[in-house]
């Protein structure tokens, strides 16, 4: 992997990690176009590690919220009278909602980094989950703000987040859709999606670091890709929160379908190979 490869992939990661278009799917497609072996453990490890840059951007963007939630959570552990506070409950919601993907991701790690790295899976997931996103927009009442989120919401969103282990589904697309189905408004669903992604993506990045370093990638491309993804992701997060406040996420679904169709055509005509 060259430095230019890492810069390109870092830009793709930063742009797509928090948009409901599937960062893993886009990284897989772009890595293939760059001539990289997409099912190589060092390449899948690289794509997981540079997610840490995007997560660092979210942590910085939501630092005041994260700090307030963490303090309230700890305070509630020590003093029972604070356990009814919203921020204390939110701390538990993030912990409980993040647990399923950690367990499933660890148990299914060989499948995720192997057979599911086929571009046929990416194309099918891009198109298939777009239907779910459109349905979530049209069925969900979008009547509940962030302050009315419940433990059940967090559990449902956390379970659905596990589906994002399939390249092409999109972690944010899965969790935002689940939140909309539960009646949360777009901003609430999106903010919870960001918070649920922090433990999951940090864990994946740390776990995959050894494969990325032990392969042909090298430390310098990893550092460059992570820094680039951080810068681009920060701008992406700010833009998405403003966008969902006034616009439907259906536009992302239509883009996903178009990309999936193009990918199917390229695969069917042997213009590119699936792995």
From TrEMBL:
Additional notes on this entry? Bacitracin is thought to be involved in the inhibition of peptidoglycan synthesis by sequestering undecaprenyl diphosphate, thereby reducing the pool of lipid carrier available.
**Enzyme Commission identifier(s):** 3.6.1.27
Record's superkingdom? Bacteria
Q: Which key words tag this protein in UniProt?
A: Antibiotic resistance, Cell membrane, Cell shape, Cell wall biogenesis/degradation, Hydrolase, Membrane, Peptidoglycan synthesis, Transmembrane, Transmembrane helix
The main location is membrane
Task: Name the encoding gene, please.
Answer: uppP
Q: Which residues cross the membrane?
A: 43-63, 92-112, 118-136, 189-207, 219-241, 253-274
Species assigned in the record? Kribbella capetownensis
The name under which this protein is listed is Undecaprenyl-diphosphatase
